[in-house]
Design a protein that fits this description.
Shape: elongated
Helix content: 40-55%
Radius of gyration: 23 Å
Distance between the termini: 29 Å
Strand content: 15-25%
Number of helices: 14
């Protein structure tokens, strides 16, 4: 599964009802076609591929470069298969805003009414994926949309989106359970964004030592950590030269092993931080995942621990943006490799089959096909 990058800005407004109803019918038909042709696992793989998901949103009729594509496409999918969940063996929970916070309740409802004995594990997966993207990739994007899609045998995919109001950009995060070995280390199937930043990236393999030191500081006497952190805050004005970036400061230290660390321009509440660290210390987390899931541990606590781990102990985390420029099926210029026409045509055939199965007018079907084929022409560089 290749990751991809898509361009979409924040939009306002609401999808017209007439368009949303047509999107529901087409999304339902495409889902039926994929499950019947390839099975439930393949549906999860496709929905967790960021480029394929973007194509799906375009085909069913939404703007290709809009942040609304994510929320509207998933809303159409959720409503489109309503009542068909047991037939398909696919269940979609969550959504935008307040609906996203109801995701655990929706998972529990499906679990209890269908007799799924694994629903508690899915609730945990829903919570930790949201917390990872909120706390471990700190690029100024606030998560506001969370969808959890799972099958009757307990496999799942997660699609969630964050908003950066200062940059007026959205960033989408994709997860697939079939690919996850560790929730806190490179767990994503793809992250899409059109801006490259310099975030605190604690899901990178390069951040492993930084996370290990953070856990040890919590498990041992927290007074030492709090003393070190307070000292860093007090001395930052004299030790560091700050460069202002959108939403960030880059602090460069001289004459010490540590030399830079991006942090958000904000003041830490030391009393609150002490209370959180002391609580975590009492619970004695065995690993970073347990620390992350401790109640009260959020982005600021994680950032504070990472900062001390690097400055005091030299355990540098990664600042590489995990969003990548790549392609679902290759590129028309041969970068990063030539287009795999067989794979691409297979993808198109599934979408075409879904279009044909949809209970919409011939005109609507033709328009959907035109949107589909215009994407192929763009990718392959065809003129006709």
């Amino acid at each position: 599964m290749k990751t991809g990058i898509a361009t979409f800005s924040l939009d306002t407004g609401k999808c017209p009802r007439w368009l949303f109803e047509r999107m529901k019918r087409l999304a339902r038909a495409i889902t039926l076609a994929i499950v019947q042709e390839f099975g439930q696992d393949e549906f999860l793989k496709r929905i967790s591929d960021p480029v394929w998901f973007q194509s799906l949103g375009c085909v069913i009729g939404f703007d290709w470069n809009s942040s609304g594509l994510t929320t509207t496409t998933l809303g159409a999918l959720k409503e489109g298969i309503f009542g068909l969940e047991d037939e398909l063996g696919i269940y979609i929970c969550g959504g935008k805003g307040k609906t996203s916070r109801k995701t655990p309740d929706e998972i529990r409802m499906f679990g209890l009414t269908r007799g799924f004995d694994f629903y508690e594990k899915l609730i945990y997966a829903s919570k930790i994926t949201a917390k990872v993207d909120s706390c471990l990739i700190q690029a100024g994007f606030q998560i506001y949309h969370h969808n959890f899609i799972f099958t009757k045998d307990g496999k799942f995919a997660v699609i969630q989106q964050g908003m950066n109001t200062q940059l007026q950009k959205a960033r989408r995060y994709h997860w697939l359970s079939l690919k996850i070995k560790d929730f806190t280390e490179e767990p994503h199937s793809g992250i899409v964004s059109d801006v490259k930043l310099k975030p605190l990236n604690l899901v990178a393999k390069e951040s492993k030592e930084n996370k290990e030191v953070s856990v040890e500081m919590v498990r041992e006497e927290p007074k030492t950590f709090l003393k070190d952190f307070r000292l860093i805050c007090e001395k930052s004005s004299s030790l560091m030269r700050q460069k202002r970036l959108p939403g960030f400061c880059e602090m460069e230290l001289k004459d010490v092993e540590f030399y830079h660390h991006p942090v958000e321009k904000e003041k830490f509440d030391l009393k609150r931080l002490r209370k959180t660290i002391e609580k975590a210390h009492f619970l004695k987390p065995e690993n970073f995942e347990q620390l992350l899931m401790t109640e009260g541990v959020g982005p600021k606590t994680i950032r504070a621990l990472s900062l001390v781990s690097e400055i005091i102990y030299g355990a540098k985390p990664s600042y590489e943006d995990p969003a990548r420029y790549s392609f679902a099926h290759g590129g028309k210029d041969g970068t990063p490799y030539k287009v795999d026409r067989l794979t691409y045509d297979k993808t198109i055939s599934v979408l075409e089959k879904g279009i044909e199965m949809a209970k919409i007018s011939l005109k609507e079907k033709e328009m959907a096909k035109q949107r589909l084929w215009s994407q192929k022409k763009l990718l392959l560089g065809e003129n006709s």
